[in-house]
Design goal:
128 residues; 4 strands; globular
């Protein structure tokens, strides 16, 4: 099975029932095609970069799931046919490296001191 992420944007003025029906359809497609849904997040209403279907804002949803290529084709087909969905994008994240979180922050001086300023010209003279 491959790992996928899908982000879809819904019309901002939808009622809770309409939103639940769209998210339920997405989860039904995943379960019907023997996929596994790991995460469904509501990112809230945000301003769009440009108007889509005369809408300046949209409600963003993030979906993380595992499945086959037939699943992604059917999910995108159903999102495309739904008038409540403004845009969607799915990506395959199977071969992407895991997100790297640094174990320790790099030590960076918070303020510039006189010693730091004096060391800079000395380093330039040594380079010549």
């Amino acid at each position: 099975m491959r790992k996928y992420e899908t982000i879809f944007i819904l019309q901002p003025e939808l009622s809770e029932d309409d939103i639940k029906s769209v998210t339920a359809k997405a989860q039904d497609v995943i379960s019907a095609y023997k996929g596994e849904c790991f995460r469904m997040d509501d990112w809230g209403i945000r301003k769009l970069a440009y108007p889509i279907k005369k809408s300046a804002r949209g409600r963003y949803y993030y979906l993380r799931f595992d499945g086959e290529s037939a699943l992604i084709a059917e999910l995108e087909r159903r999102l495309r046919l739904d008038d409540k969905v403004l845009r969607y994008q799915s990506i395959n994240i199977t071969d992407l490296p895991e997100r790297i979180v640094p174990e320790k922050k790099a030590e960076v001086p918070e303020t510039v001191t006189e010693e730091t300023v004096e060391e800079a010209p000395a380093a330039e003279e040594a380079a010549e």
